[in-house]
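Hi all, long-time lurker, first post. I run a small reading group and we've been trying to get comfortable going from sequence to structure in the token notation. Rather than ask abstract questions, I figured I'd post a concrete chain and ask someone more experienced to write out its structure so we can walk through it together at our next meeting. Sequence below, copied exactly:
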Amino acid sequence: MASGKVAVIRARPWAVACFLLPALLLLGALVLYPIGYSVWRSFFDASGDSFVGLDNFVELFTNDGIRTALQNNLIWIVVAPTVATALGLVFAVLTERMRWATAFKLIIFMPMAISMLAAGIIFRLVYEQNPDRGVANAVMTTVHDTFTDGSSWPDAQPRPDGPIEAQEDGSYVLLPPAEAGGTALLPLVAVPQPELEDADTAAVPEPAADAVTGTVWMDFTRGGGGTPGAIDPEEKALAGISVEAVVDGRVVAEAETAADGTFSLPAEADGAQLRMGADNFSAPYNGADWLGPSLITPAIIGSYVWMWAGFAMVLIAAGLASVPRETLEAARVDGANEWQVFRRITVPLLAPVLAVVMVTLMINVLKIFDLVYVIAPTASQDEANVLALQLYLSSFGADSHQGVGSAIAVVLLLLVLPVMFINLRRLRRENAR
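-- Answer (accepted) --
Happy to help. Here is the structure in token form:
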């Protein structure tokens, strides 16, 4: 039968040419011509009129922005496919032992139905710095605040030209020394009114001959009026503030303000300086700066893994279904535990499938563009830059230089070719078996 087909092909080459011609024309118009034009254009200047040789390729390795894109692409190629494949392998193995495996696979694979643009918008919101809007920081702040007490009044500040002075370490110090039998008034301002809704009215403490008493309060009367530095009738107390008596840099006594803002220190505080520690006023924990320069690339890789781990899981699960169960059971009978079975039998048998997934994802990450473009804000887009995005910016952005853009396209092609050759060799070996 096969020899008959070969004979027909040899006898009628024009028929074969007629069938192949439309596909060859499309291939030439959509693939070969753009590649050839990009290679040709990469040797010319921005206008396309002057031949510049390899200058555009030299620009790739001397321009700081493009070098950052190259470095980020290397990080993407190593990290993203590895993490996505590893998670896909774990999910595929776990689903074999789960009762609701189909539902679990559906949930993990569901992000694949979302476009890159939509996923970018979703994760731009997830990574928002404000915990009230960003899910990632909302989780982090919730966990942090569960185990760590926050500061009492993070917004409070000394009154300008008042008796309290802010220190470099964030603490506030009352300049006049404390006196036993006297009353120390520590006025603060800048606390938002909503934070004071449940606060008690500030009170003037009773002097004590053998103690230093005082009040910490919000020195501001709503609607204006009042006397600066004095406790007016409607002004609110600042409760829970730790007040320390410091002598020669050593804390000799400490007290905490009550609900009405008052505190009392023992006689050891006589002549000491009163200090309100920085812990009382430190800014609340708001999580990580996911969209900042240092974390933007790992954050975007995380969003990519969220989308493509399901793809890896489905392919690996299909390969896992073809693994001989007799081999696994024989290993268990011989005394191997589940980790040994997984590491020494399951993974080696799945090596061809894992290679397919890795190669596919490596080619995919070389083209990553929209996730970076959407998630990274303008302030940190340079740090998150990748070659595909730089190609777009160089070719069509401000001060466009299509010669440099074409050079980037050629470099991307050269990076993809080795991965494609590895994949083709693997396919040929499998077909030869």
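A couple of things your group might point at:
The mean pLDDT is 87.
The chain has two domains: 38-129+291-432, 157-280.
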